[in-house]
User: Fold this.
Amino acid sequence: MSRWVSTHSFTLKKTGSYYLTHITVAALVAYAVTGDWLAAVTLSLLEPTVQAVVYFFHERLWQRAGVRPRTAVAVRMARAGG
Assistant:
């Protein structure tokens, strides 16, 4: 687990930052709608928690897509100038 955390530390830090920002915004919006801080905090913790987990895996997929080796077709097209 420690190796996994160190391997993905940047994405985990970015996810944590996104999570805190999302909770803050969600709490303010929920308070504006409900007028109740307890309900606002409760509502703001549920959705951003799920979103943070999804966001982490979303980032991993995009990173993987960005370093994907070029396909043989892409190499042929690049050599052909198009």
